[in-house]
Every structure is written in C-alpha cells, then in structure tokens.
Design brief:
The complex is a heterotrimer. By secondary structure, chain A is α/β, with parallel strands linked by helices. In chain A, the strands form 2 sheets. In chain A, strands 6-7-8-3-9-10 form a 6-stranded mixed sheet, with helices on both faces. In chain A, helix 8 links the parallel strand 7 and strand 8. The two termini of chain A are about 40 Å apart. Chain B is mostly helical. The radius of gyration of chain B is 25 Å and the shape is globular. Chain B starts with 5 loop residues before the first helix and ends in a 9-residue tail after the last helix. Chain C is an alpha/beta fold. Chain C is about 35% helix and about 25% strand. Chain C has a 6-stranded mixed sheet, with helices on both faces. In chain C, strands 2-1-4-5 form a 4-stranded antiparallel sheet, covered by helices on one side. Chain C is globular, with a radius of gyration of 18 Å. The N and C termini of chain C lie far apart (about 50 Å). The chains are: A alpha/beta, B mainly alpha, C alpha/beta. Chains in contact: A-B, A-C, B-C. At the A-B interface, helix 3, helix 4 and helix 5 of A face helix 18, helix 19, helix 20 and helix 21 of B. Chain C: This is ABC transporter ATP-binding protein. Chain C: Belongs to the ABC transporter superfamily. Chain C: It comes from Azospirillum endophyticum.
Amino acid sequence: MADQLKNSLPKKPLLEIAGLTRRFGGLTAVNGLSLTVETGELVSIIGPNGAGKTTLFNLISGLDAPDAGAVTFEGGDVTGLSAERLAALGLARSFQHGRVFGNLSVLDNVLVGAHTRLRAVKPQIPLVGPLVELALALIRPPSVRAEEERLRAEATEIVRMFGERLTPRLDKPAHSLSYANRRRVEIARALALHPRLLLLDEPTAGMNPTETAEMLEIIRGLKAGGLTILLIEHKLDLVMQLSDRVVVMDHGARIAEGPPAAVAGDPAVIEAYLGHKAVGAANQDGPNQDGGRDAEGDAARILVAH
Amino acid sequence: MLPTTFGPWLDYTINGLVIGNIYALLAVGLALIFGVSHLINFAHGSVYMVGAYIGWLCVTKLALPLPVTFVTVAAGCGLLGAVIERVGLRPLRNAPRIAPLLATIGLSVVLDQSAQLLFSPDPRALPTQLPTWRIAIGGGSIGALDLLIAGVGIGSAGLLYGFLRFTKLGWAVRATALDRDAAQQCGVDVDKVNRTVFAIASALGGVSGLLVGMYYNTIDPNMGFQAGLKGIVAQLIGGVGNVPGAIAGSLLLGLIESYGIALFGTSYRNLFAFVALILILVLRPNGLFARARRLPPEPLTGTFIAPSRPLVLPKWAVWTLAALALALPLVVQQPYLLQTLGNAWLYALLALSLTLVAGTVGQVSLGHAGLLAIGAYASSLLALDAGVPVLLAVPLAGLVAAALGTALVYPAFRLRGHYVSIATLAVGEIVTLVILNWESLTRGPIGVTGIPPLSVAGKPLVSGQWVYWVPLIVLLAFAALQSRLLNSHLGRTLRAIREDDVAARSYGVDLNRYKGLAFAVAGFIAGVGGALMAHFYSYINHETFPAPVSMLALTMVILGGLGNVAGAVLGAAVLVGLPELFRAAAEYRMLIYGVVLLLLIRFRPQGLLGTV
Amino acid sequence: MTDVLLRLDRVNSFYGPVQVHFDLSLEVPCGQIVCLLGGNASGKSTTMKVILGLLKPRSGQVVFDGQPLTGLNTPQIVRRGIGSVPESRRLFGTMTVRENVLMGAYTRSDAKSVAEDYEGVLDLFPKLRERHAQQAGTLSGGEQQMVAMARALMGRPRLIVMDEPTMGLSPLHVDRVLEMIQTINRQGVSIFMVEQNASLALQIAHRGYVLQTGRIVLSGPAADLARDPQIRDAYLGGAQAA
C-alpha cells in the first residue's frame, strides 16, 4: 500500500533548471536554458566550444549567479546559493582545465573533497563553532582521530579505483602529476564528497584513447552504483555509450534533447556541429561532389554512428 | 576650532585640490603601471622620494633654474623607473604573481635605505625660488606654487592624453593594457611598452615629490612610504588601472583630507585616507566609477605560490635542535649574545604568525607589525592601568590581538591577491594612527613608560638567561602547536584555500571561517610576541612597531619558506641574529634586508626550507 | 625559394613538469590552408603559442621560410611575416575598430601604404567601414571576427595562424568566416588553423593533421582525412571499450 502510494506520487527530478540566463556584457553565454536530471540518470551536455556549457556548470555549482531563471535541487530552490552551501547539499564538480591543489599531496586533495562530511571535528555550534573546531584539531580526541582515520582509508580506497595510475603517487604533490592524472585526482576529490549529483566537465580532455576508455569504465561503474551524473563531453563516442539522455547546447540555448541516437540525427544538431551549409548535404545523404562536401556527409554519419 | 566663515573653507578646498593634484601625479603613474603589468608598484613612493632629493640637489647644490630642475628630476626618475622595470621586474615575468609584488617592496626598502645612508635620515629644507605673492579670491587665496602645481598636474594629464590617443607607442600602451598577448601578436614589443610606462610613471612621480618638497619646504628619506600609499588609495578610489579615474580619485582624496583636517586636526590626516581605502575595498572594490559587478580578475587557475618540494626535518633533528637551543645559556654566558638571540626568538613569533597567514593561507599581510603593537599595548595597559598580573596580561593581550586583528582584517577576507596586501597594509597604518590619536587610552605620542617586567612568584625575569629562555620556550610551544595544527584537517583546508580558493569553495570550504581562524591564531601568536617585547623593553610608543617591521617579518618568512614553521624560526634567527652577531652597523641592516628579499625572490623564491 | 612556408621539426614543449608536445612535426606548404584538429587539451592551442614564440619549446625548432625562428620573441616573429587571429578574437575592447585594425600594422612604418592597405581591408570587409569609430568590444561575434582578420592582414603576413576561428559564432557567421578564410587564402596568404570542429575545418582546408595528447596521430590531404574512418577514433575520442 505504502509502496503504491510512493509510486503514484509524481517523481521529483533531482535537478531542475528553468529559464537560466547569464550575460557577460554584450554576450549572452546562457540563454533561457531549461533542463532536468532525474535521480540515477546520466545526462550529457554536448555542443561546440563557446556554446556556454562551462558557464552553465558555474551557474549550477554556485560559482556564478544567473541574471534570470531558477535552479532547483532535490525540490529546494538553490538559485544563487554559494558554492560552499551547494557542496554541503551534495553537489560536486570537476573543472574543465583541472583545478587541483598543486602543493597538496594526492591524498590531501581527495581529503579536501570530504570536507563537507567532517562531523566529529566540526560540531555544528553557532558562533563559537570555529573555535571549537580549532580546539578539537589541536587536542584530537579519539572521535576526531577515528574520523580522520576513516576518511583517510576511504580516500585511499577511492584513489585505488584509478589503479596503478594514481595509487603509487598518493603522497606526491599534485603539481608533479601529468594532465590526465590531475583529471583523475579531480574526480577522486569529487567522489570523496559523496555527491548526490556529480558534475563532470570534460573528464577525458587531454587523454589518449586508452586513458579515455579507462575513464569511460570508471564513469560507467559510478553510474551503475546509482550516482546521478551531469556530463560535459566532446568525445561523442563516449557520450553515446554512457548517456541516458543528451542535451545539445549552442549559443547558450538548448537546441535538442533526447536519447543519444535521436539527438545524433537531429538537423539542428548537425547544423551546430557542421555549419549552416552542411544541413542540406546531410539531409540528402547522397553521393558527394567534392572533398569539402564529402567531409560534411561523413561527419554527419559520425554523429549517427551509434 | 571649527571655521565659521566661508573664507577658510575656500582655502581648504584650494589646499585639497592642490594636494589632490600631487596625488594625481602619483596615482596616474600607478594606474598606467597596473594597466600594462597588472602590478601594484610599491616602489612608486620611493621614486617620488628620489625625485624630491634630485630636486633638492639641483636647487641647493647646483643652483639650477626651476625649469631645468624639473626636467632633471623627470629625466632622472624616468631613468630610475626604466631601471626598476629592467632589474626588478622583467626577470620575474614568468614567476608566480606574488613575486613582482614582493620585488617592488624590496626595491622600495633598498631605495629608501640608500637615501637614508646618502643624505642622513634628517629632514632637509627644499626652498622654492618662486615669488611669494598670493591672489585673494573670495576670502581664500592662491599662491604661485599652488598655480604651478595645478599647471603641472593639468599639463601632464594633457600630455598623457595626447600620448595615449595620438602616438603609435601610446596605442601600443593601450593595446598592451587591454590584452598583452594580442598586442604581442600585433608585433608590439611589450618589454619596451613596460619600460616606457615605468619611465613615464616614474617621471611623473618624481616631479610630484619635488612639488611636495617645495610645498611643505621639507623632504626626508621616508617621505615616500606614506605618499606611495596615498597614490595607491587614490588609484583604488578611481578603480585600478583607470587613468581618468585615478585623477578623479586623487582630487577626491585631497579634498577629503583637507576637509578632514579642518574638522578634526592634522594628526588624523592619514587616517582618512586609510579608512577611505578600507571602505572602498569593501563597498566598491572596482572603484567609484566602475560598473562591473565583480572583482577585477585575478588568475583563476595556476597557483599564486610556486610549486615546491619542502625540506622535511626529521623528528629527532627537531628535538636535538630544540634541546641545543635550550641548553645554550649553560655554555654561552655573554648577556649581549643571549639578548640578541632572545630578540630573534621574539621576532620569530612574529614570523610564525605571518607564515601562517601569508604562507599557509596565502594572504600576504603587509601590516603584521600592527598585531605586535596591539599585543604590546594591550598587555602594558592591562598591567599598568588595570593592575592585571603580567603573567595573565600576556595571554590576555594575545586574545585581544586575535580578536581585534581578525575583526580589522575581516572586511578584506573577500579580497584576493594584491588587494589583501594593500588592505592589511592600511590596517597596520590605521592601528598606528589610532594609537597615536587615542590619547586617553594609549597616552598618544608620549608612549607607555615603566612597563613592569615579566615575573614569576614576585621574581622578575630580567637577567640574560631569562631574556633568552622565556621567548624561546614560548616560541617552541607555539611552533609545536602550529605544526600540530598544520597536520590536522585544518592544515590541508587552509592550504587548499591558498592553492585555489574557487576549487576550495566548490568543496564546501567556507573561506571566511577558515581565514578568520588563521588570522585569529596568527593574531594570538603575534599578540603574545608583542606583549613579551613590551615587558622586556619596558617602554613602547607608536613608533616601536613601524611598517618596516612588517617588511622584515615578510622577508623572514620568505627566507625560511612560506608556510614553513621551522623556516620562520630559521628566517628570524638569520635576519635578526646574524647582522647583530657580525656587528653590522645598525644603519645598514634594513638595506641588507631589502637586498636579501630581492635576491630571494629572484633566485630562491621557495626560501631555504621550501614552501609547505 | 621553398615550397614549405612553415615547418615544425620534432618539437617538445612543456608547461612546468607536464609535457604538452611529443616530437611534434608538421608542415604548411606555401599558399595552402592547413588545419590542425584535436580535442580540448590535446595541445593544439599550445602549437599556436610555439609558432608565435609565446612558449619556447624545450627541444626541436620552428622553421619559417627556410629560417629557424629559435631565439626570436613574438614581435620579431610577427615581423618575419606571421599574422595571428587568436582564440576568441582577443580584440582591444575599448579601442575603436579603426584603432584595432591599424594596430595590425604596428610593425610597419610606411604610413602611405598602410593607409592604402587599410582601404583595401575595408573593401574586403565593408561592414567595418560603417563601424570604424565604434568600440570593438561592442561588436557582435561575427563582426569581431572580421576585425581580428582585418587586423592580422594589416601586417602583410605571408602566413596567418588562427585559433578556432569559428568558435562561438552563429551558423550563418560560421559560413561567412569560412568564406573569408578562403578569400584571404586566394590572395596568396597561407593559413594554419587550429580547430576542434574537424568537419568545419576540413571543408576548406587543403591538408589536415590530427593531434591527440600532444602527438600527431593522423595526417594527409583534407579530402582523404574527411573520408578516413580513423578520424572518428582519433578526433572524437574513440573509447572502444565495451
């Protein structure tokens, strides 16, 4: 009976964005964008460079404030909430260019990710809370030590997910890591937050095919574990394999949305990716006259390949 | 005291505009430099001082006519500016952003100290050859020098406008300021642009120094520090890098000061400027005339502090060194040596405090001596006026410094990079000025005399060993506590803020909370340090902890390695202990610190033990 | 004198400890449009920086018109005849359109022929004539791209390097920009363009290279590349697992 009732209730999406707009001077980076992400879903955002994808992530994660529109997270209005508040609500993100803490070790980077989960050392006492935290950090009663031990063990576990790439470098400063390893540290740091929603901004940028395949497996594993993920990615192959839904952005607006296969055939998408002239050619799908036309036809097929 | 007729107010207005013109000459140069190199040039005040001295040489020694004096000052300072750019800043082009800022501080110390050695610290008169007539207008009056200053101000602004608007090099300056890379890709030699801008800015700054010298008929080697700060304040009021804004901001600042003096008296003069600065930084960080809603961009990625591999001292080595240090008075008995080292340990407390905020959290404070002053005054006054036992007064003074220091710097927590340095510098100055002016509490310029020494069970600890042991024991205790703090979750949290505050926020780190904690701990340590100094010195006044002490502390911290606890102790021992032991003449000491700072920034920015 | 205008010869470049290019070699023949394709963070914009002398490679060299550019700074390289259209235009926002375009002639001292060239450029981009007194920052994206190209042309370059010239432009403007590039190329200027969007770039290029994590993984005539099934794996990532 209770189950029935639960199922009959309209399911609230985990994240709901409505009419989000952000302008920089004359440029409208995000323009009246709306989208929803259901719990457990993996939604990908694709679109050419400059389409406003990263600005959208900044707006969702509280690093930037929208000029108009609303963001709802787990049913509550979180528009304009600060990044630190959103993190506490369970929202974690990675950054496009990688923003690891260079002079911190890999382990410490991941532990900072668990900052919002500190309880024993950070009791919620108004006003004198910071001083109590300072005292507990210096005195370190057993509860604090146990918490730190537990988080360290867990952080090490998370790093192990990335196998031999990262585990031997646990105590190395992050500035000594390769580009790909920095991206892995970012994701490990995000996972340490135990996110309700994970925003990944081009997690495979700068990775070769082997590394990309590894990352794909890791993301697939996270998804299988029930994690809700919003993904920005250029490697369409990966997008097609992982996504439940794909949202296509261009000029700050959503130009298409749907299951991967449907989106790939959308003329608006092909136009955004291939330019104005390409649409006719792609629709004809006939033999091509010259090299230039050839490119368009072929690239269109790339999009629908999966 | 309040002037009741209209006449004096007109005089105050004229006076304010004249002073404003002088600030404008400084601020315009700072704005130009910030435009092309995104640097707030702390050496600009020193160039102004050099300008005044070149003018003094021309007028009194060479008896040159006034126009020739002006040309010589402009040329000499222009050349100095070009040299500063070439020697001090160009080698640091690819260094972390903190490096050029620190280099200009080092350069300013070197220039000021050199002037002091060359011309003696005493003020000199700089007579004008101008006629002494004054024109009366509506109750006020304008003199020839006022007109000259106004003429130079307006004339320079006109020339500058023409240069930027109509010459090829002027276009290159504007283009470089707007987008350095794109300008280079148009074939602009940005080194040449930088050199030109430094030369122009310094020529204007030098002329400004000359005019001020003539206006007040006095110059001294330390005149540049306050003036440079005023230029920075004026520039911030107008919006950094904004040339017309700098002029408007300067005139406004001149008027605020002039009216403020009319209402409250001369000794408050500088307070207005610094309070205005804090208000501007908090309320309108882009300046009065900006429309943008966000702070000017600091680099969003890439660390403010260079990557480093710190040297980690093994535990046994730390214990051995501590034990050896404690045992030293058993072997060495010369009171002078022990006293010197004791003094070094007191300064090490300041360095420990600064390395936490500047090193661990990356908030480069330039007003740290203010915390010493708060601690020293709090403890002395508690002991003298409230009858609190010294042993209790010292930790209470630490608490006062922690609370007051954090509260004063709190408005600056939302600022980043160079702005933090400027704000803390201003806070340091405000502390000094409040001490000077709040006579009923602090005894004003007379200072506090007869401060009781530290005593245990009625036995005063004044002998050589105790002057050494007390600071050392306190230092070791704080060093141990700070190391423990850095090993806790707070250590990684504070360092994460330094490395990338945007990423830290995204992981739930509340910047205000943790910056506040760091400043509170730092305030406590420095406050206790200041309190101990007061009880050992037995006399303090508002000049016991001047701004150069803050620079010295910064040099110690950088020498040891930012954020490095052992490094802070080492830095203090080297910089306070060694010059004393080698009996280097006292007047050369600050010069040595300046040179050491410059060399470190250039050749070993991570310090001796490395950034932690 | 030589058929190859620009040649990168086994370039290895680094950002701090991180290596960006691994033995990168490529050529731009005289009079051709060559595109360098690759995803974000593949090292393609860094290639622009290396050519323009903004980043010094640790080993290897850049040869322009038979002369190595080693040891030259950016202004000197620009004087040799390389113009640039940087990523996202990078105009001087508060300077006028006219000032922006004339900044492109900064290295030239022949005032008379600069004035002639300015007229010529305005003929090529008539829209800019109407807007010459307007602040460049207030223009639309497509118009800004015109200013950037006009600026690059004013230096009378033999080669123009472009970083993602179509980024953030509306489809209509994308077509216009591609046509402009071809027009410029027909006047004898070689083009080296860095693009993320392979399909767009291959429409107008003669040759293409595909860059992946700092290595060239594919190269050839544009028409061949467009047909090559491998380009999908190389350029679009090709996660073959599963």
